[in-house]
Structures are given as structure tokens and as C-alpha cells.
Amino acid sequence: MYIYKAAVLGAGIMGAEIAQVITYSGLPVILKDVNDEAVQKGIAKVRKIYQERVDKGKMTSTEMEQKLALISGATDFKDFGDVDIVIEAVPEDMKIKQKVFQELEKACPETTIFATNTSALSITEMASATKKPDKVIGMHFFNPAHKMKLVEVIPGLTTSQETVEDVVAFTESLRKIAVRVQECAGFLVNRLLMPYLNEAVLAVQEGAATAKEIDDALLAFGMPMGPFALADMLGLDTAERVAQILYNAYGPRMAPAQLLTEVVKAKRFGTKTGAGFYNYEKESDDTLNNLIEKVQKQTGVKGTTFSVDRLISLLINEAVICLQENVSSAGDIDIAMMAGTGFPQDKGGPLHYADQIGLDTVLSTLEKYAKELGFRFWPAPMLKRMVAGGILGVKTKRGFFNY
């Protein structure tokens, strides 16, 4: 099915940016929210994105106005009668999302695809509230949506193959990279990113290094941002919520660092509140150090060691677990991590990087940390099998990829 007209529900930052991406591809879009003030704020955000392009000489004022003419605001569903796809970007609450889809069913044609921009909630559960679960799919954009190239396309258990193909084609028409991901908690990128971010927090919690030292080390590794600068930008309240979803799904190996919970309890959500792991308003601030001291007293764990391997080995291990569960292909896992998190391109994504350094090296690193720091480092069975079988990566010409 070709998509001629789209709608976005929720005119917040993500919703507005998704609407801008759609208009940039030349398609008309309705941007809906509960009141006109929210809608106008969203449209202003779209205008700001285009104005930045004009200021940089990437488009003319006339072209900007032509693109802006493709967006219309709405506070009800009366103009949804000819919409081919609706992407919801409302708050991350299952009941709210299900209610929204039920309301949409009354206003949209039967053929309309219902896509959700959820970062972690179950597509299948969301679809169960509708009369056409075959038309419900995950379409997870990354923040900022107008710059990030990756979109995870996540079918639920009831999503039809036709819907998947239509959404992949639509995603590509938006000049985005579509990576198909089997439904699981956290999908692909968040599922790999969260253990990495959480381990960084544990390292600070245990006094292994400071947030700045860890960020500097990961920048030197080639990441575009350190884990703490990234977490502060994403929002620590959001990170903690995703961490809880993953913990509920996968158990103790995904247990959130106590320090993350304490920082969120202290209402330090990152850049949006002026303080998170960094303080963006004051030069000196003892709050974080006091929280670290408090957690160390409660856990009795301090003085562990930090290295880049401590974070990267966990990320690689989760990538292997996702591969053995058929969450995505090896190639798509690497593409998703490069496009979605900025994993260094010269390293080729976590699985290519594992092949480069040797799967036996990865395994011994994980085993060492499993002894020192706990079972969250327990190596993936697939990794153990590959090493036992002499499949070690580049040096044996065969690993996750062939060389």
C-alpha cells in the first residue's frame, strides 16, 4: 500500500520531529494533540528545524514555506478519514496508547496502519485493544528524529507481513534506515544500550572512576558521546523507566544500578532539569557525591576497577544474546548500533568489533568480569560455542561474519 497522507499523535518534541521528517519527504501530515496550544508549539518546533536549514543555506525560505504548508494541526479526529498511517508519540503508558488506538479506529479507514513510536512497550499488547491487530506495528524513531537515521520496525505477534513491508517502504521513503526487529522488551538498540549505560553508573557508584573519566574514556574509544552525557541528554527518568522494563523482562542481569534510582529520586533528570550526573547550572555540587556515599554504605561495594572493556564487553554480549534469539540479523544489529548510538564506524558495530579483537578475547574478558563483578557478565551460550569450535573472528576468517 502506498502512503499518501500521514498523521502524528502527540505534538511534543518527538511527535513534532517525526511530523517534520514526513513533510520533508513531501507528504502531507496532520499533527494532533489534546489542545491547540500544544499543537501550535509542535508546529513552531517544525518551523524551527526548517529555519535552521534555511540559516545554513540548505534550503530557501520559499522551500521552507512549501514544506510547512504540508502540515496541519488538529485537536480532534475529524480530518482522519483519508489517513494511510498514524504514528502515535503520546506518553509511554500502555493504557493511554491503547485508548488512543481505539479512538483512531472510529475515525480512520480500515486500511490505516497504526504505528507506535514506543521505545519499549509491547506491540502485541497494544494491538490487542484494536479490532485490526494485523495493522499495528512499532516504528521507533530515535531522538532527535530529524537527525537520527535509524528507525526500528517492530512487528507484533499479530502484525501482517504486508504491514511490515509497507512500513519498511514508508520508512525508506523518509530517507531513514529501517531495521526490522523481532518484538522483545527494549527492542534492539535500547536492549543493548541499557546494560552499557547501567554498567557506567555501577562503575561510578562503586568508585571505580568519575563520570567525567568514564565519558572521556568512551570518547577516546570513538563513541560520539560518553555514557553520562548521553544519559543526561536522553533523560535519567526515561533511562530508569527503560531499565525497569528490561529488569522485569530479563531478570537480575538487567537490575538497575541503585545510584540511577537515587539520582532520579533526587529529581535530577539530566539536561532538562539542569542537573543529572553532571550539573549544568553550578560549577560545584556535592549532591552526586553524597548519593554515591549513601549507596556505597548500603551495598558495601566500593573500589572496583574501570576499563572501557567493562562497558563494551556487556554491550557485545547482549548483541550476541539478541542474535541467538533471532531479534535481528548480525548485519542489522551492527547497522542499528552505528546509526542509533554512534558506535564507531571504523569498528563496524559491536559484532564486527568482536570479530576484530577475537571472540576468545571477548569471552575471557566476560569470564574475568563475571568472577570479579557478578553474573551479569555471564557469557552468551552462542559465544561459548563459537570459541569452543574455533570460530574466533578475523584471525580464523570466520566469526559473526566471514572474512
Which terms summarize this structure?
N-(1-d-carboxylethyl)-l-norvaline Dehydrogenase, domain 2; 8-stranded mixed β-sheet; 8 strands; 17 helices; Rossmann fold; alpha/beta; globular; 403 residues
List unreliable stretches of 5+ residues.
Answer: none
CATH topology of the largest domain: Rossmann fold
Order of helices and strands: EHEHHEEHEHEEHEHHHHHHHHHHH
- Overall strand count: 8
The proportion of residues forming helix, as a percent range, comes to 40-55%
Determine and state the CATH class of the largest domain: Alpha Beta
Integer-rounded radius of gyration: 22 Å
Task: Return the structural class.
Answer: alpha/beta
- Order of strands in the sheet with the most strands? 3-2-1-4-5-6-7-8
What is the CATH H-level superfamily of the largest domain? NAD(P)-binding Rossmann-like Domain
What general form does the structure show? Answer: globular
Please tell me the CATH architecture of the largest domain by its name: 3-Layer(aba) Sandwich
In percent, how much strand structure appears in the residues? 5-15%
Query: How far is the first residue's CA from the last residue's CA?
Result: 39 Å
Total number of distinct structural domains: 3
How much is the average pLDDT?
95
**Count the helices. How many?**
17
Major sheet attributes: 8 strands, mixed
